[in-house]
Design brief:
The chain has 18 helices and 2 strands. By secondary structure, the protein is mainly alpha-helical. The chain has one domain. β1 and β2 form a beta hairpin. One of its GO terms (molecular function) is ubiquinone binding.
Length: about 475
C-alpha cells in the first residue's frame, strides 16, 4: 500500500520543483516597483462571462514565495506521515493534496470569485484530516469536536467574506454599470466612507479568524492538538499564512482609507495576541497546544507589521511568515516523532528525556531557540525587521510588543525544561527510547539548514518580495488621503 504515498510525494516534489524553476527564471529582483500590482506571469480564462468571473491566476514575488513554501512543507508533510498513517491511506493523501491545491489556488487567484472558491476548498479536507486521523486530546475532548469547531469557525468567516465580496461587486456595478470580479478593476471602485469601512471589516474578520487574531482564535489550539502531524504542519505552516497574504493582497489595497483608520485597533489586537499567545503557551501541558499558542503569538507580529504601512516592516512580515512556517513545522514534526515513541503529548509525563534519546532533544532545542527569535535563525531577522519598521510609525506599540520576545524565551525554555530535563516523571519516560530514523533526521535537518540560511542570508527572499511589497505599500500610502493621527 505504498502507492498513494509515492504519488503524493512525487506530486508535491514536482510542485516544489516548478515553484523553484519559476523563481529562478523570473527576474524578481530586477522589477522596479510601480505602485500598481505587477504580475510576473498570468493566466486568464473566461469562466462565467455574464458576471465577469474568469479563472484568473497571477504570480508576483509575494505569491511565489508562498507557493514555494507550500511546496516544501507539502513534501515534508507527506514524508513525516509516512509511518504515522495506517488506515485509509489513499483518502488521507487525497485530502493532503486537496488542501495544498486549495492553498496554492488561494495564493495565485486574482479573480475574487475564484479566490473565494479556493478559500472554501481548503476547508473540507482539513476537517476530514482532523476528524478521521486525529489524536485524542490529553484533556479527553474528541477529535470530532475539534474538527467541527474548526469547520464552523472557518465556514462562518468564509460566509462573511463572501458577503463582503458580493457587496463590493454590487457597489462597483452601481458605480460603473459593469459586473466584474476582477481584482485590478475592483481596486478603483469608488466608495463612500461608511461602505468602505463595512466591507473592510468583512474582509478583516474573515482573515482574522484564519490568522488567528485573539478574540477569534478559539479553534486553533483544539484543531492543532488533535490533528495528525501532517495536518498540524499544513495548518501552522501554510493555512495561517493565507490569512496574512489575504490581508496584504486584498484587505489593504481594496480599502486603503478604512484600513488606515482601522490600523490602531488592528495593531492593538496584534499586541494582545502576542502577549496572550505567550501567556497561554506558558501554562499548557500538551506540547501541541503549546506550539499552537506560540503561533498566535508570532502571527501577532505579522498583524502589527501589515498595518504599519512601512516597507521595512512589510519585508519583515514576509520573512517572519516563512520563518514561522519552517520553525512551527519543525516543532510539530518533532512532536509527532515524540508522540510515536511515548504515545503521549503530556509534558507532565515526560522529563529527563535528554539522556534517553539520540538527536531528538538536541534538535528540539534548536527549534525552541529558533522560536524565541535567536539571532542566526530566520525568526530573528523577521521579528527585528518588523520592530525596526514599526518603530518609525508606532513607537509605543513597538516598545510594548518587544517585551513579547521576553515571554517567547520564557515559554520556549519552559517547554524544553519540562520535557527534556530533570527527572523522569513517569514510567513511560524512564526507559531507553529508539533514536531517529534517517527519514526523520533528513526532514528535520533540512528545516534546520533552511532556517539558518534564512537567518544569515535573507537577501534573495527580500529581493524577490521587494517589488510586490513596495507596490502594496505605495498603493496603501498614496490612497490614504488623510494623514494618520
Amino acid at each position: 500500500m505504498k502507492v498513494p504515498r509515492w504519488i503524493a510525494l512525487i506530486t508535491m516534489g514536482l510542485t516544489l520543483a516548478l515553484g523553484l524553476q519559476l523563481w529562478l527564471q523570473g527576474g524578481y529582483s530586477l522589477t522596479q516597483s510601480a505602485g500598481i500590482p505587477q504580475w510576473q506571469s498570468e493566466f486568464v480564462l473566461p469562466w462565467i462571462p455574464r458576471f465577469g468571473i474568469s479563472i484568473h491566476l497571477a504570480l508576483d514575488g509575494l505569491s511565489l514565495l508562498m507557493v514555494v513554501l507550500t511546496g516544501l512543507l507539502g513534501v515534508l508533510a507527506v514524508l513525516c506521515s509516512w509511518r504515522e498513517i495506517e488506515k485509509y491511506q489513499g483518502f488521507f493523501h487525497l485530502n493532503l493534496m486537496w488542501i495544498l491545491g486549495g492553498v496554492i489556488g488561494v495564493f495565485l487567484a486574482i479573480d475574487m470569485f475564484l479566490f473565494f472558491f479556493f478559500w472554501e476548498m481548503m476547508l473540507v479536507p482539513m476537517y476530514f484530516l482532523i476528524a478521521l486521523w486525529g489524536h485524542k486530546a490529553s484533556d479527553g475532548k474528541t477529535r470530532i469536536t475539534a474538527a467541527t469547531k474548526f469547520f464552523i469557525y472557518t465556514q462562518a468567516s468564509g460566509l462573511v467574506m463572501l458577503i463582503a465580496i458580493l457587496a463590493l461587486v454590487f457597489v462597483h456595478y452601481n458605480a460603473t454599470g459593469v459586473w466584474t470580479f476582477n481584482y485590478e478593476e475592483l481596486l478603483n471602485t469608488p466608495m463612500s466612507h461608511g461602505v468602505e469601512y463595512l466591507l473592510m471589516l468583512g474582509f478583516f474578520i474573515a482573515f482574522a479568524v484564519k490568522m488567528p487574531v485573539v478574540p477569534l482564535h478559539g479553534w486553533l489550539p483544539d484543531a492543532h492538538s488533535q490533528a495528525p502531524t501532517a495536518g498540524s504542519v499544513d495548518l501552522a505552516g501554510i493555512l495561517l499564512k493565507t490569512a496574512a497574504y489575504g490581508l496584504l493582497r486584498f484587505s489593504l489595497p481594496l480599502f486603503p482609507n478604512a484600513s488606515a483608520e482601522f490600523a490602531p485597533i488592528a495593531m492593538w489586537l496584534g499586541v494582545i495576541g502576542i502577549f496572550y499567545g505567550a501567556w497561554m503557551a506558558f501554562t499548557q501541558y500538551d506540547i501541541k497546544r503549546l506550539i499552537a499558542y506560540t503561533s498566535v503569538s508570532h502571527m501577532g507580529f505579522v498583524l502589527i507589521a501589515i498595518y504599519t504601512g512601512s516597507q521595512l516592516a512589510y519585508q519583515g512580515a514576509v520573512i517572519q511568515m516563512i520563518a514561522h512556517g519552517l520553525s512551527a513545522a519543525g516543532l510539530f514534526i518533532l512532536c509527532g516523532q515524540l508522540y510515536e515513541r511515548l504515545h503521549t503529548r503530556d509534558m507532565r509525563m515526560m522529563g529527563g528525556l535528554w539522556g534517553k534519546m539520540k538527536w531528538l532533544p538536541a534538535l528540539s532545542m534548536f527549534f525552541a531557540v529558533a522560536t524565541l527569535g535567536m539571532p542566526g535563525t530566520g525568526n530573528f531577522v523577521g521579528e527585528f525587521m518588523i520592530l525596526f519598521g514599526s518603530y518609525q510609525v508606532v513607537p509605543v506599540i513597538t516598545v510594548i510588543s518587544t517585551f513579547g520576545l521576553v515571554f517567547a524565551s520564557v515559554y520556549s525554555l519552559a517547554m524544553l525544561h519540562r520535557a527534556y530535563f530533570g527527572k523522569a516523571k513517569s514510567q513511560i519516560a524512564s526507559v531507553e527510547l529508539p533514536g531517529m530514523s534517517l527519514r526523520e533526521l533528513f526532514i528535520i535537518l533540512l528545516l534546520v539548514v533552511l532556517l539558518v540560511l534564512l537567518g544569515f542570508y535573507p537577501q534573495p527572499i527580500l529581493d524577490t518580495s521587494h517589488s510586490a511589497m513596495s507596490n502594496i505599500q505605495q498603493w496603501f500610502v498614496n490612497s490614504v488621503t488623510t494623514t494618520r493621527p
